[in-house]
From TrEMBL, chain A:
A GO cellular-component term linked to this record: actin cortical patch
Main location group: cytoplasm
Family annotation (PANTHER family): ACTIN-RELATED PROTEIN 2/3 COMPLEX SUBUNIT 1, ACTIN-RELATED PROTEIN 2_3 COMPLEX SUBUNIT
Source organism of the structure: Candida verbasci
Protein name: Actin-related protein 2/3 complex subunit
Residues forming coiled coils: none
Family membership noted in the UniProt record: Belongs to the WD repeat ARPC1 family.
From TrEMBL, chain B:
InterPro entries: ARPC5, ARPC5_sf
Localization annotation: Cytoplasm, Cytoskeleton
Keyword Cytoplasm annotated: yes
One Gene Ontology cellular component: Arp2/3 protein complex
Family note: Belongs to the ARPC5 family.
Name the UniProt record assigns to this protein: Actin-related protein 2/3 complex subunit 5
Lineage: Eukaryota, Fungi, Dikarya, Ascomycota, Saccharomycotina
Pfam families: P16-Arc
Keyword Cytoplasm: yes
Cited function: Functions as component of the Arp2/3 complex which is involved in regulation of actin polymerization and together with an activating nucleation-promoting factor (NPF) mediates the formation of branched actin networks. Arp2/3 complex plays a critical role in the control of cell morphogenesis via the modulation of cell polarity development. Functions as a component of the Arp2/3 complex which is involved in regulation of actin polymerization and together with an activating nucleation-promoting factor (NPF) mediates the formation of branched actin networks.
GO terms for biological process, alphabetical: actin cortical patch organization; Arp2/3 complex-mediated actin nucleation; regulation of actin filament polymerization
PANTHER family named in the record: ARP2/3 COMPLEX 16 KD SUBUNIT P16-ARC
Domain of life: Eukaryota
Length: 378, 158
């Protein structure tokens, strides 16, 4: 089996978020104000996906997309302050508006694992927990507000569909209860807490730098939480019950560019990626975490590439010319661009990886600013 | 088109939920006084005059006045600058700098990068720009890009 089952170049616009349906037959990606739906050939992943629909009801940048656990509904949210739930009826996707009641852009949205609810994070210092109200035939929301005071950048549901983790630009990672009476059955106690009425704050953690949080994710068993921050570090917390100090809180500083997204492969393995354009695997447990390996070979960005003596009169591309100016600006001298350098990064992604998702066992899918969606074996 | 609506303060109705500057700085750091920093700088100078460069560097980088008066921060920044100059003047080879950096722990390396940037912004630092850039180059060679990311993001400024 090859290391990379599929690389899809879907245009050249940045992809902020992507999502495969649970049966992996459909791929949804965000592209400016639209969401594009592609059909995937499940028996041969490497074939080019086929565009089957474009959802364009949002009138500002779409920030996040998620497909419900049963695969029937597509959730999108956008900087136009709205979230929409799309269902496939009579040959086309029909949107239902969600009553979010927020005054600033929605930044991120996620279905709960049981598919009964979803959460929408916003720059209005609010997370809206949304659920379906049958008598009115629309989606309504309850707000998680206190003590959030900054933009929510990332959210993730606990496997029990009650607890919700979020990260924000003030450097806080918080865990809330998103329990909705009448929708959820009484939750079993977890390491995060026993009594969980709506809006209970079950945990509040910060890195020492208080840098922006980019990604949060519960471990598959739900007993740990990992997060990535703009200070290039990865955080972990292992709580042990209500009112008790966590068993351990770790902050692993790395020397890569900051990571944006994190996913768990199993309870002792995570994959992170972001501004370094590559995926890195970390392994560990509550006592310590360590880097295991990088998925792709990558050249060290801090080392200068040796330059070869090319013919003086060789024509150069605009990309090479730009690089020459950059070098002149940074170092005060110009290295003649060689053919090798002009090919860009050694990694598949040529720019920041914006989101990582679990694809199958030991497989993850990524999407990035370079307009690519890639499936990797871990 | 009139774009005045962009200037409307949409937060005016919710004054409570504003984030203050203080809330963004970690609360568990004790304040450093001018007196403490002056004592440390004296200790550092005595290390430097007796040739204990590594000790001087470590003492300087371990005692960072994150919560302190601006003046106190300046004094410490100057002290670090003196250490860097002194090490460079007494070690002619560039590879020697690297050995000093390798012997620092992660935290100290992060702090070193912060002070390199800080000193680059001062007049006296700019006169010695080459020296600071040599230190910077060698540090990043040892550490990678992490400390730069942390310099840019850390709310605890030096």
């Amino acid at each position: 089996m090859t290391k990379v089952p599929a690389v899809y170049q879907l245009g050249h616009l940045p992809i902020k978020d992507h999502c495969f349906s649970p049966d992996r037959s459909i791929l949804a990606i965000t592209k400016e104000n639209m969401v594009e739906i592609y059909k995937i050939n499940q028996s041969n992943l490497s074939l080019k996906p086929q565009l089957i629909a474009t959802l364009n009801d949002h009138d500002k940048t779409v920030t996040s997309v998620d497909i419900s656990p049963d695969g029937s509904k597509i959730l999108t949210c956008s900087q136009d302050r709205n979230a929409l739930v799309w269902e496939f009826k009579n040959g086309e996707y029909k949107p239902t508006l969600v009553l979010l009641r927020i005054h600033r852009g929605a930044t991120v949205c996620k279905w709960s694992p049981d598919g009964q609810k979803f959460a929408v994070g916003s720059s209005d210092r609010i997370i809206a927990i949304c659920y379906y109200e049958e008598e009115n035939d629309w989606w309504v929301s309850k707000h998680l507000k206190k003590p959030i005071k900054s933009t929510i950048t990332t959210i993730d549901w606990h496997p029990n569909s009650i607890l919700l983790a979020c990260g924000s630009t003030d450097g806080h990672v918080r865990v809330f209860s998103g329990y909705i009476k009448g929708i959820d059955s009484k939750p079993d106690p977890t390491v995060w807490g026993t009594k969980l009425p709506f809006q209970t704050l079950c945990g509040d953690f910060i890195n020492e730098t208080q840098a922006w949080i980019h990604g949060v994710k519960f471990s598959p068993n739900g007993d740990a939480l990992a997060w990535t921050a703009h200070d290039s570090s990865i955080g972990f917390v292992y709580p042990q019950g209500e009112g008790l100090e966590p068993k351990s809180i770790l902050n692993l500083k790395t020397n890569y560019l900051p990571f944006i997204s994190v996913v768990w492969i199993n309870d002792s393995t995570i994959v992170v990626g972001g501004f370094n354009c590559n995926l890195v695997v970390f392994k560990g447990k509550e006592s310590s975490w360590k880097e295991a390996y990088q998925i792709e070979e990558q050249k060290d960005l801090t080392k200068e590439t040796p330059h070869t003596n090319d013919d003086e009169d060789q024509e150069i591309s605009s990309h090479q010319a730009l690089n020459m100016f950059k070098q002149l600006d940074l170092k005060g001298r110009v290295n003649k661009p060689s053919q090798k350098q002009s090919k860009g990064l050694k990694t598949i992604h040529q720019n920041t990886i914006n989101s990582i998702r679990n694809f199958k066992n030991n497989q993850v899918s990524t999407s990035g600013i370079d307009g690519k969606v890639v499936i990797f074996n871990v | 088109m009139n774009s005045d609506w962009r200037k409307i303060d949409i937060d005016a109705l919710e004054p409570d939920s504003h984030l203050t500057k203080e809330e963004l700085i970690p609360t568990n750091i004790p304040e450093t006084t001018k007196q403490q920093i002056i004592e440390i700088s004296q200790q550092i100078r005595s290390y430097l005059s007796s040739g204990q460069f590594q000790n001087a560097l470590i003492l300087g980088l371990d005692n960072v006045p994150y919560i302190a008066e601006e003046e106190t921060k300046e004094i410490h920044s100057k002290t670090i600058f003196e250490i860097l100059c002194s090490i460079k003047n007494n070690n002619s080879k560039l590879s020697d700098l690297k050995n000093f950096i390798i012997d620092l722990n992660d935290e100290q390396q992060d702090v070193l990068i912060k002070y390199l940037y800080k000193n680059m912004s001062t007049d006296y630092g700019q006169k010695q720009g080459g020296l600071l850039l040599q230190w910077f180059e060698k540090t990043v060679e040892v550490t990678g890009l992490g400390p730069i990311a942390r310099y840019l993001t850390d709310r605890r400024t030096v």
